[in-house]
């Protein structure tokens, strides 16, 4: 095995919101990702000329960090301004939440700036030939060939199970073993099944759903934790220009439902399997008095959200903890930094604000 590139800059794996925030802080990096498009769990899709978000649907502008006894509040939009990152956003739900008017994936591409991630490359193995170097093996899905590259510093932003798979495939290495042991308590993710419905000539009765698209800050979502149709986001209110006559709804199903129905949820074209098609049509009729939609598109997120993040799920990121000190030491001593929602919590603002804070304070 001979590396085809020897990078003198850090190699980041993952072009999701974490990868984007890292690129915003320092463009002197290289990013690899296995997906065809960037964004990871903050992705938008265009189908039949309408776009919609099928992962995250909005973000909060404010977050807080507690460190060395001090408390600092950050506004994500101010962080973007300070880094010359620009894309139009609109308020949604209340005055603290926003979404980019061209789709959530704009968040990621906006922060990437001039960094162009190398997509379609799956990290398979990671090995350290000497104290200073990491060799990484990527499978290139276009050429169907493996490529080795080398670097001095690696940043992994994947969900923990995907990282452990890579470590298990790699040669035994005490540094990887230390990381695997450290990550174990945080390796807990919920699954989420998703359905997207599109009607070209039908709109719901907004009043009966207690929604009002004409408000200056429209409420577009309903959340009832624990029920099957847990989270409903009327994407057509977010992107009104694309839905003059029709409408679109994104449903994220509850965790119990998603766990139980994960395997048979969709066919290879992401259409619902027969069993679920009837179930979905029935649900639409019951809940919204909706006719059968022109399009149903299903998706499933295996590692949707980290359940046990090291820095907490909600509230400020609390960095004055032993486990955070251990995280810092591991990053330094192994030359591998591992971060993502298992560290900051599954919220866009926590990840962006967290990476900004770490980078600003020389911790990244
Ligand atoms: C359905 C859903 C709804 C959500 N709603 C919201 C919301 O409204 N607001 C909010 O704040 N948060 C929301 N979240 C959470 C938020 O989307 C995530 O916390 C965040 O996007 C995680 O970003 P990340 O970059 O850390 O990870 P990811 O987005 O998962 O990025 C990791 C990247 O690594 C790549 N990858 C994986 N394995 C490999 C490999 N072996 N080699 C190379 N690349 C690899 C993947 O392709 C991916 O692009 C939601 C999440 C889901 C799933």
Automatic annotation (TrEMBL):
Gene3D superfamilies named in the record: 3.90.660.10, FAD/NAD(P)-binding domain
InterPro entries: FAD/NAD-bd_sf
Pfam families in the cross-refs: NAD_binding_8 (PF13450)
Source taxon at top rank: Bacteria
Protein name: NAD(P)-binding Rossmann-like domain protein
Protein species of origin: Leptospira brenneri
